[in-house]
Specification:
Layout: E1 2-5, E2 14-20, E3 23-28, E4 33-37, E5 44-49, E6 56-59, E7 65-68, E8 72-76, E9 83-88, E10 96-103, E11 109-115, E12 128-131, E13 137-141, E14 147-152, E15 159-163, E16 168-174, E17 180-188, E18 196-201, E19 207-211, E20 216-220, E21 226-231, E22 237-243, E23 249-254, E24 272-275
Amino acid sequence: MEIKRLGDLKTALGECPVWYQQQLWLMDCRKGLIYALNPDTGSITAQREVPPPTGSFAFNDDGCIVLALKEEIAALNLSNGHLRTLARLEVSHPHLRLNDGTSLADGSFVVGTMHVFREPDELPLGGLYRLDTNLELHKLEEGLGITNGPAVNPVNGRFYVADSAIRSIFSYVMTANGTLTDKQIFVRTDAVDSAPDGCCFDTEGGLWTALVRAGALARYDLHGHLTHKIDLPLIHPSALCFGGPDMADLFVTSISDSGRLSASGPLDGAVLKLTGLGFRGTARPLCRMPL
């Protein structure tokens, strides 16, 4: 296995790497910047600016981007930069914003919130939401402090989501109409001394997550057993995705200054590329919104 820096990009809050049309896309959530990188050289091939803070994004089937902003989901036309609101949260708060999200096979977009700086007995606002292909927003779950890593396991078909605030990853059955049932605790990450952040799956059903406070990645098998822990040459990895010609490379984003976490090492905020892992992933499905 080899770990190397991809290009010279340094992000404040690197997040949401997405493999799309043979390029690596990602965002700097604190700066409101979306980048496309050449996966071999790391050179920036495209860049767009949107209102910060951003949370996550997914590609639509027409090449536009479905984008989570602070309290709304929007559509971004990459060709002209036009931004159109698709849906808004039912609540607003200075310390609440949309965070990690993903596209699903039915063409919908699922995204969760983070509500930070709460009092000890204050319940988190927001939750987990699904924007369907009719542009209707449905609340799927509540009580999540910092939502991260929503993804569907390609082997068992269950839907997984992390609450970084309580160092836990949960799994659910997602019904045909997009609701969640059969909530189970998949894993608690106290044993690796970190909250889980972004997540992705390999083709064997292994869940990979960025250990944002441990400078490492972890892989858990279908039963929640830790099979791999990979130390990284940076402090705060944030998210990850498989990509490359054979979907066998793993790309990792990181943090230099999120507003809550900071680090000043030479690779903090960089994008890493891991090769030779022996695992493969699958590309994310496309949203199918009528944009």
